[in-house]
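Hey,
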Amino acid sequence: MWLLTEPEMAAAGRALAAVMRPGDVIALAGPLGAGKTTLVRGLLAALGHEGDVPSPTFAIVQPYEALRLPVHHADLYRIEDTAELEEIGLDDVLFDGALVVEWPEHAGPGAWPQALHLSLEVMPDGRRALTWGLPETWEGRWPPPLPAS
C-alpha cells in the first residue's frame, strides 16, 4: 500500500505508464473524489497526451489514440447492465492498446481477470491509500519503486 498526496497520485500514474503494454487493463476502484482521474491524468501525460483529461462519466469511454500506447479511458459508473458493455466494445481496444476502467465492478465479477486492480481510498489526512491486486501478467512490473512527486 502507498499513501499518496495528489501530486504523488499523478506520479503513480506516470510510473504505471512506464510499464504498460498493449492488451493491459487497469481497473480503478474507489469512491468519488478518491483520485482515479488524477492517476489517469498522470498516466496519459507520461504517454504523451498534452490536452485536458476530463472524467469520462458521461461519455463512458474517452479514447486517447495518438500516444506511445493508445489508451481508452472508460468510466462504468452509469452502466447498469453488463450487456451494455458489448455495445461499447471495450475489449476491441486491447489488440494494440490498453484500457483503463473506472468503476470496474459495474462490468461484473468476471470481467478482465488479468487486469491490474488498483483501489483508492481517501484517508482522514487527505492522502490517498493506493492498494493493488496483482495478477500473474503484472508480476515483475508492478509495483515499481514508490514514485517521487
